[in-house]
Design goal:
The protein is an alpha+beta fold and 734 residues long. The protein is built from 19 helices and 30 strands. Among the domains are: 167 residues, Aldehyde oxidase/xanthine dehydrogenase, molybdopterin binding domain (Aldehyde Oxidoreductase, domain 4), CATH 3.30.365; 236 residues, Aldehyde oxidase/xanthine dehydrogenase, molybdopterin binding domain (Aldehyde Oxidoreductase, domain 4, 2-Layer Sandwich). A hairpin with a 2-residue loop joins strand 17 and strand 18. Helix 10 packs parallel to helix 18, helix 13 runs parallel beside helix 14 and helix 17 crosses helix 18. The structure holds dioxothiomolybdenum(VI) ion.
């Protein structure tokens, strides 16, 4: 294993012959012609597949008194019904996997109560509705605001502990200008295109799952712990994924219930969650209440900064780390952050694109806009004067690896025409539209994760990379192929990439925007080993060997890769682990969002008119796929600002608008011209790729820039997302 514990020196990736180019996605033709097989469509993997339909709990909290499957069992085509009464023993090692099957306790609405397996989907669905469940309903806790006072310190792990530097109370009290405001963000749902789906098949005591999952090794581990079988007997395959956004970081009920249904029938079983089940059976981004206090001197320098956040989850669940960015984004001597967790009996809260920062930046970046206004200062300038080149909680001994936040702001302001902004709200008109401009920072941490890959070259000189890394629509196939092509000196067409299979070396997987950088770094390690193996085999000098045009050269000697590989080919497994560079240096990705929005002065309808984002995120491995990530995330920011909200029925404890008709996300008509600029940057402390993540950066702050533009347009300062027409109307200055 390559150990990455000193900053990368000049290396082969710096040549950027293939890496760094806007190459089309190599899986693009498969996707656009419908030939990329998604989990539910893998018709060839198992013969005699039966269909499973999951029946969800119709109460939010309580227990199952009796469950009568008699009539359902006799319905046409039904092969088996599995409930907690006949599922056999299941492991309950982790809170979330322990909740995949209800009974007798019910922990949340739509939690799986049964799977009906039948010859057809329609038969399974019809029979599921013949199951009679008698529930004992208990009172539940469904309202975050109502539970706020009972919220507690979350269990100390990762980013959960409170942080404090200096005497916040004194510094805040002494500040020339103060802000103390509370912001709220609602529950949000991932709304990825492909629902959770799995085909499960047993062969003796071996289980195969064809599923849609971001983290293959976690899936194997969790299925092993749930079904109480060794991980070696579980095979997971997930080569194409129609979006995840965090919803598919862990196995969900489709996988567990399909496995149970297959075990009960002896047949392969396929299960897709229905769209409503995606909202209430799986996970969501939890709602937050965030109190922010900022104290500054007249010149705009922040002297006191505090961010406290409340969120809720089921018993044993996690808090949303919404104050995370406030630990690092702005300077300020006295500081504190804290998170409090309330117990709620709603469906599980969990990671959704940029967990922590996505919700936190919605609040912090309105607060900065408000502070700028109180200081009568330009909000771009306010952010610039509060830049810091080191982690402000840890001090100058922990500098940022790279931080070009100020450049993002300056370049963005320049390109956007920020100087034309009128700082007084409600002054600019275009017919019936009031026009405003808003700015917000973008910030997301840079996480690196151990990652391995298999690299081989065959007798035709074809290179193959195999790793359990996933491509959730992000472009993993392509950037991995670029990395291998760069290092082995072959055109990208000569590289075949195989992903998402548990028989391949374990990668970083797709999560937390670590996947692109970490998985290509693992591929880098494997390809460097393969180069060594090839060089050694042909007896070349490893010091001066050059891989180019499908050949390797040393001095005057030249051998083709095909020849070097020979009949048997050459294969190596290798990977990378990351040392303590992420502790010695603060590592994060940065940017600045600029938005122009129009607000109809009669109806308060909001139209985003222009968006520009400038980002600094290390080497951009592929500007085309990276831009796609950013514009998708910026669009999600528009959704967060203006429309997305999973509405809680506070009496019955579930998300009411559980479909795409009522949980609104932006469509093309909602998204105007978007411009994305990447600063030319490499970060040698992040990985040998000198890249960082971009998958989540674009959502962080985007929604706040929209909210700030709405304020500048019409003077409605709204601190409760989303900014719907009714709230704007109520907040318009009279
Ligand atoms: Mo991400 S929310 O870790 O897929």
């Amino acid at each position: 294993m390559m150990k990455f514990d000193i900053p990368a020196e000049a290396n082969l990736i710096d040549k950027e012959r293939v890496v760094g180019r806007p190459i089309n996605r190599i899986d693009g033709p498969l996707k656009t012609t419908g030939r990329a097989p998604y989990a539910y469509e893998r018709h060839d993997v198992a013969k005699g597949t039966a269909y499973g339909y999951i029946l969800g709990a119709s109460i939010a909290k309580g227990s199952i008194r009796t469950i009568d499957v008699g009539e359902a069992r006799r319905a046409p085509g039904v092969l088996a019904i599995v409930t907690y009464e006949n599922a056999g023993k299941l492991g309950k090692a982790k809170a979330h996997t322990a909740r995949m099957l209800a009974g007798p306790g019910v922990q949340h609405y739509d939690q799986a109560v049964a799977i009906v397996v039948a010859e057809t989907f329609e038969q399974a669905r019809a029979a599921a509705h013949l199951i009679k469940v008698d529930y004992l309903r208990e009172e539940g806790r469904f309202d975050l605001a109502g539970q706020r006072d009972k919220a507690v310190k979350p269990q100390e792990k990762g980013d959960t502990p409170d942080t404090a530097v200096g005497d916040f109370a004194a510094a805040f009290a002494a500040a020339d200008v103060q802000l103390d405001e509370t912001y709220t963000t609602p529950d949000q749902c991932h709304a990825m295109m492909e629902p959770h789906a799995t085909i499960a098949a047993w062969e003796g005591d071996k289980l195969s799952l064809w599923t849609s999952n971001q983290m293959i090794a976690w899936a194997v581990r969790d299925m092993s712990e749930t079904l109480l079988i060794p991980p070696e007997r579980i095979h997971v395959s997930s080569p194409y994924i129609g979006g995840g956004f965090g919803s598919k970081l862990w196995v969900r009920a489709d996988a567990v219930m399909a496995a149970l249904g297959a075990r009960a029938t002896g047949r392969p079983v396929k299960v897709a969650l229905t769209r409503p089940q995606a909202y209430n059976n799986t996970t969501h981004r939890p709602a937050t209440i965030q109190r922010i206090r900022l104290g500054a001197s007249r010149d705009g320098r922040i002297s006191a900064i505090a961010h406290e956040s409340w969120s809720g989850d089921l018993e044993g669940g996690d808090v949303e780390i919404a104050a995370k960015q406030t630990r690092q984004l702005y300077a300020g001597e006295a500081r504190l952050t804290a998170h409090r967790l309330a117990t709620l009996d709603l469906p599980e809260g969990n990671a959704m694109r940029a967990p922590g920062e996505a919700a936190g930046m919605l609040a912090l970046e309105i607060a900065m806009d408000e502070l700028a206004e109180r200081l009568r200062m330009d909000p771009v300038q306010l952010r610039i004067v509060n830049d810091t080149q080191y982690d402000p909680e840890k001090g100058p001994s922990v500098p940022f690896s790279e931080r070009r936040f100020v450049e993002c702001l300056q370049l963005g302001a320049d390109r956007f025409g920020w100087s034309r902004r009128n700082p007084t709200p409600g002054q600019v008109r275009d017919g019936r539209w009031l026009i405003g401009m808003g700015v917000a920072a973008a910030f997301r941490g840079n996480i690196t994760m151990k990652s391995a890959a298999r690299a081989s070259v065959d007798k035709r000189g074809m290179v193959t990379i195999a790793t359990d890394m996933t491509d959730i629509g992000t472009g993993s196939y392509t950037i991995i192929a670029q990395t291998a092509a760069e290092l082995l000196g072959v055109p990208i067409e000569r590289v075949s990439v195989q992903l998402g299979d548990s028989s391949f070396p374990v990668s970083a997987g797709s999560g937390g925007q670590w996947g692109g950088n970490s998985s290509t770094a693992g591929v880098y390690a494997a390809c460097m080993s393969l180069r060594d193996a090839i060089t050694q085999k042909v007896g070349f000098n490893s010091k001066d060997v050059v891989f180019e045009n499908g050949e390797l050269r040393s001095g005057t000697r030249v051998v083709s890769l095909a020849e070097a590989a020979g009949d048997k080919g050459i294969t190596v497994d290798d990977g990378i682990e990351f040392g303590d560079l992420s502790e010695r240096y603060a590592q994060a990705t940065f940017g600045a969002h600029f938005v122009e929005a129009g607000v109809d002065r009669h109806t308060c309808e909001v139209r985003v008119r222009r968006m520009l984002g400038v980002f600094a995120a290390g080497r951009i491995l592929n500007p085309k796929t990276a831009r796609s990530q950013i514009i998708g995330a910026m669009s999600m920011g528009v959704g967060a600002a203006l429309m997305e909200e999973a509405v809680v029925d506070k009496k019955r404890g579930y998300f009411v608008n559980h479909d795409m008709a009522e949980y609104l996300v932006p469509v093309h008509a909602d998204i105007p011209h978007q411009e994305v600029v990447f600063l030319d940057e490499v970060d040698a402390k992040s990985s040998p790729m000198k890249a960082k993540g971009v998958g989540e950066l674009g959502i962080c702050g985007a929604g706040a820039a929209v909210a700030n533009a709405v304020y500048n347009a019409c003077g409605a300062r709204i601190r409760d997302y989303p900014l719907t027409l009714n709230k704007i109307l109520k907040s318009l200055p009279t």
